[in-house]
Each structure stands twice: as C-alpha cells, then as structure tokens.
Design a protein that fits this description.
Elements: H1 3-25, E1 30-32, H2 34-42, E2 54-58, H3 59-72, E3 77-80, E4 93-105, E5 110-124, H4 129-149, H5 151-154, H6 163-175, H7 183-195, H8 199-202, E6 204-206, E7 218-219, E8 227-231, E9 234-238
Parallel strand pairs: 2-5
Antiparallel strand pairs: 1-2, 3-4, 4-5, 5-6, 6-7, 8-9
C-alpha cells in the first residue's frame, strides 16, 4: 500500500473512533455510508485504495452531535461546521484532526486542510409523487444558489460533468453571481430547506449532500437500529438493509 495513503487512512480511523465515542456517549444512531459502507461490508474496514470516511445521522441525532461535540472532543480533534466555525463554508459537517493536513485542489486555488471524516445528515423525503418533485426542486434550487455564491470553492475539478451542470457553471461565471450572493446567507437557507421535511413523519429519508443524491432515497426503516460489524480492529454501525 502507498505509504502516504496508509498514513491518511490511519488518521481517518482515529477520527472515526473519536466520532463513535461521542455518539456512544449520547446514544446517537450513526451509520457508515457511501464507500465506507461498502468497505465495512466487503473489506471489514476501509477500502484499500480509498482515502475518506463517510458517516451519517438522522437530523435529530445530527443536531445533538453538533451541540455536544465541541465541548467533549479530545485534542487534537475538532468539529468544523458552518454554523460554528469561522471560514467553514461547506454544508457537510467534518470532524478533523488538527495536526494532520492535506492539500485540496479547487477550481482556481489550492487549500491546505486538516484530514477529516465527513458527517452527512439524513433528512426527510416525501412519499407522494408531486411532493417528491417539489422537494427535489426546492433542494436543487438551494444548492445551485449556494454553488453560485462561491464558484471557486464549490466548483471542484471533475473529469466529466453532465451538460446541465456545465451550462449552470458557465451561467454563474457569466453573471458573476459570487459578487451578489452571500455564502453565509445561502448556507442558512439551505439548512432551513433541508430541515423542512421530517423523515420521522414521512417514513422516507434522503442523504441529499451525497454524491448520489436521489439514489439515496429510501424508507427510513432500511436504516433501522443498525447492525454492528467489524471495521479495521473495532466495530461500526451499518444500515439494517
């Protein structure tokens, strides 16, 4: 294994264990998601060539984690979230190791950031066809305005994009949207939109900030109480189904 990748994965495992410690302390239900879920099932740990870890909580547990993490995290760990971390403009919360840094390339600049674990939030999704279309439109509109508020940050380098994304990016550049859209305001509006649908009431959930967006829509009971599986020498929670 590449020595640098091995070092990155070791730090991320430690961050994950700190995340789990706080979740267990407050009886919060978290789940491994994305590639981390695949790794937990197929490799009983991180995918050998993967360089990130993704976890998710339902909204209520997510908010409880945000409320308590800063007070209870052990150094060198810290929580980065736009609501409480100056300069943090990603919607996804991140638990970071402040002693380890990695170079991250954006469209026009390079930033040095502490290594992190992404903490996604599971929000509600309507079961009705019309309501589902309206929910999709609401969230996509909010995400578009957030992207337009800081094009250099949110438009990351990607080998291939759908035509509609390329058109919207060019439109944002042409209109210089970053000049008149406040990222702070758009983050707050995005948060209100995300919170506006309760998964507990609809019985359906979505991890909208996931790369897979609508493919993550599923009944909430698919997550359930979670199953415990081994993960690189310790245990983690995965969805029931």
């Amino acid at each position: 294994m590449n020595t640098q990748l091995n070092a990155i994965q070791n730090v991320q495992r430690r961050i994950l264990q700190e995340f789990i410690r706080i979740c267990d302390q407050h009886n919060l239900r978290y789940y491994m998601v994305e590639g981390s879920l695949l790794g937990a099932v197929r490799h009983q740990g991180m995918i050998p060539w993967d360089d990130d870890i993704d976890v998710a909580l339902f909204r209520e547990d997510y908010e409880t984690f945000l409320k308590n993490a800063d007070q209870e995290l052990h150094p060198p760990f810290a929580l980065h979230h736009f609501s409480q971390t100056p300069g943090q403009i990603d919607y996804i919360a991140r638990l970071v190791d402040t002693t380890s840094y990695i170079e991250t390339s954006y469209r026009r600049n390079v930033e040095h950031k502490p290594l992190w674990v992404d903490i996604f939030v599971l929000d509600g999704f309507p079961s009705g066809q019309l309501a589902a279309k309206m929910r999709k439109g609401q969230l996509l509109y909010r995400k578009l305005l957030l992207m337009w508020s800081d094009m250099d940050h949110f438009v990351v380098k990607r080998a291939k994009r759908p035509l509609y994304e390329r058109v919207l990016i060019r439109l944002g550049d042409g209109l210089h949207t970053s000049r008149f859209l406040s990222t702070e305001r758009q983050l707050k509006k995005m948060d209100r939109a995300m919170c506006s649908c309760d998964a507990g009431k609809t019985g359906w959930a979505v991890n909208f900030m996931s790369e897979y967006k609508w493919r993550t829509v599923c009944p909430t009971d698919w997550y359930g109480e979670a199953r415990i599986v081994p993960f690189d020498g310790f245990s983690v929670r995965i969805p029931d189904r």
